[in-house]
Here is the input.
Amino acid sequence: MIEFSEAFGVAFSLLISLDHELAEIVMLSLSVSLVAVFIAIIVGMPLGAALAIFTFPGRKFIIVGLNSLMGLPPVVVGLVVYILLSRSGPLGVLGLLFTPTAMIIAQVILVLPIIAALTRQIVVELWSEYEEQLRSLGATPWQALPTLLWDGRYSLVTAMLAGFGRAIAEVGAVMIVGGNIDHVTRVMTTAIALEVSKGDLALALGLGGVLIFLSVGVNALAYLINKPASLNNPINKPTLFRSPIKENVR
Amino acid sequence: MKRFSPVGLLLSFSLLLLASLAQGQNYITLASTTSTQNSGLFAHILPQFTRVSGIEVRVVAVGTGQALRLARNGDADVLLVHHRPSEERFVADQHGVSRQDVMYNDFLIVGPAQDSAGIQGLRDAVAALKKVAKSSAAFVSRGDDSGTHKKELGLWQSAAVEPGADAGAWYRETGSGMGATLNTASAMNAYALVDRGTWLSFKNKGSLQVMVEGDSRLFNPYGVILVNPQKHPHIKETEGNRFIQWLVSPPGQQAIAAFQINGEALFHPNKR
Here is the structure.
């Protein structure tokens, strides 16, 4: 296979030459996926924690539903978002189709279930461990929710990274709602798909290498952010009752 | 210790995104085919149009069938595709304003060098397809309702062969773009129908070679249509018309003719 060595060379020269067009595509990929993950965190984490703490009729159905949504096919999400945002669709007046915003919407739908379901899994364990203590201190479930989320923050980083991984690697949905427009909605994955369809497999593979490099970079950054705290807390055990305020002072 | 601020990082990304959204308000969306984009034609001619007009052209490249659907939904301002009967129906149904010829090239039947169906050098595309069907040599079809696919189905019809009956056997539908289909044909040593533009710029030919060319039935004309502003009020009529007029004007036509690979023109302008 000649492609692999060639692709390695292509990836390397793309990276060191800081190709302007490549930089643009990389920045758009990162912006779209990070913003989508950020929105999914804001909505998904409280949602997942609430599902872990509160009991109400139909909760099990929601949990099963949420877990299944983790496997949502991106193409289907893309199609649904396309139909909604199309000029002939219900939200057509907004004119959002073929914009980065449309891509963010699609990715939020894909990432939200992953973050919410993983958050629920993490919080449900903390809750079973500390429910009695928290209740004996007079905390209501509403007050316990932020405490538990704060407490599980190091495990929750994994949930965020899982969500980010899904977003940055996804091609089916952003291709449909973004349209892979040069300089506007072209991201790493759709650029790779385009090069494959041009038969330029070495360049496609080279771009793939850059995408993996990017993913490693984000994960390394997350590890670094996580690390100082992990050192203070070697077994990364939940540090219940250390208040957020104290944490910030430290 | 100094810590990273993930929130600050995100905020800067959001700002960047907003900044990128704000720029380029003066643009039109062009629904077109994968053959025109994959060949590199747009990358060659669109900057010239943007330079003289200040209008950015955002290309969404999909199969002709999907491009027509996008345009019908009002999701594009201008349509540039290559299946004349569909284009004429599109205009007759009032989805588009009027159709103008822009350029043409031709289709080719390509196949593996060993040529088990023995069609290399034939001038008659229909006879060649008959031989392919008879020898049950592998043939890869787009199968995606694109202009090339519609053309291919028309040729099979002329050959009185119903390849769909043998789908999955010697007849393989990829359901994807021209490039992906050529990649498949190259890997399977199969025959395929391809437009000359994509073929000339395609880089993963493997053992594929041109088998049949020059049949008048392989003619491949491209037409341009403005999506009807009366159906979709948001259509950018002025800018869209400006683009269409440029395409058929001498500078546009010269730009198309000047796009060559190894001295061979990929598309021929209709007007000189």
Observations:
- The domain at 2-249 of chain A is CATH 1.10.3720.10 (MetI-like fold).
- Chain A touches chain B at residues 27-28, 30-32, 34-35, 38, 86-89, 92, 95, 97-101, 179-182, 184, 194, 196-201, 221, 224-225, 228 (CB under 8 Å).
- Chain A has a mean pLDDT of 87.
